[in-house]
Design goal:
Layout lengths: L74 H15 L3 H8 L7 H14 L1 H10 L6 H14 L3 H14 L4 H13 L3 H14 L4 H13 L3 H11 L3 H18 L16
């Protein structure tokens, strides 16, 4: 479980530049990071992801096509898209990018898929594709992607603005609400963080990421009652407790007032 901003992965997955935090999510599947996390990673979900580097092929600054929300995919193209998504989820991002090149470039849905893959391989090129989607039916998804890129570079306030736009567009998307909560954690907005993370948890109760982030928030707040309640309910393993501690220590520097210099997690999850 990495707490990066989703991926690399920031448990809080803001994701994880994962949150140097990398943009990634805590407890996110290996592969394509779709959200943020705090600075920690689960041994079970640890990604074999490669560090963000420019793909072997040269990315030319070509003019991007005008994205079309009305372009329907043929049956064969839709099948190929499913293959691309599967490859990305497995962490085979280069193969996924190669396959996506065979799909219609003007399709807004394919443009978003391409941007999501490129976010981990070539962030600048990913940003170009997200921006090309801002005035389309995929604008909310593009704002989410751009927020993750901002978070990956440590620009949490800029990321928050974009993430809020995404949340207004997709208020019932648990990944976006989780990522919004993670950003609030980094910015010391604990009441808002708790609200967003609880919302994410109730929208997707089987998702481990909001659970991890809620437990992390309790540790950062030294909220013994909440920690005892959540840990009793979700029974974090020894490994997860270690990841929580690591995430706590990673997030602390971002939350401290200048000169505080606190280097110990306010509450030790191993106790």
């Amino acid at each position: 479980m990495v707490v990066h901003f989703r991926t690399g992965c920031v448990l809080l997955a803001l994701m994880v530049s994962t949150f140097s935090l990398q943009a990634c999510s805590v407890l996110e599947r290996p592969a394509m990071k779709r959200s943020i996390g705090a600075p920690a990673v689960s041994s079970q979900d640890e990604s074999r992801a490669t560090a963000a580097i420019t793909p072997a092929r040269v990315m030319e600054q070509e003019q991007l096509p005008r994205m079309d929300c009305g372009q329907a995919l043929s049956q064969d193209e839709d099948l190929r898209r499913s293959v691309v998504e599967q490859l990305a989820d497995q962490g085979d991002l280069y193969a996924a990018l190669a396959q996506v090149d065979a799909l219609p470039r003007r399709s807004a849905a394919i443009g978003l898929l391409r941007a999501d893959i490129l976010r981990q391989l070539d962030p600048p090129e990913s940003e170009r594709w997200y921006r090309a989607l801002l005035d389309t039916c995929m604008s909310g998804r593009a704002e989410h992607g751009l927020a993750l890129l901002e978070a990956a570079n440590g620009r949490y306030r800029d990321a928050l603005v974009r993430m809020q736009v995404a949340a207004r567009t997709y208020p019932a998307d648990p990944r976006i609400r989780n990522d919004l909560g993670v950003l609030h954690i980094y910015l010391n907005n604990d009441a808002r963080a708790a609200f967003e993370l609880r919302t994410a948890h109730e929208l997707a109760k089987d998702d481990l990421q909001p659970r991890f982030n809620l437990m992390l928030l309790a540790l950062l707040q030294a909220d013994v009652a909440s920690w005892q309640d959540l840990s009793a309910r979700w029974q974090p393993t020894t490994d997860v407790r270690g990841e929580l501690l690591a995430a706590c220590l990673r997030v602390l520097p971002f939350r401290q007032v200048s000169g505080q210099g606190i280097s110990v997690c306010p509450l030790d999850p191993r106790g």
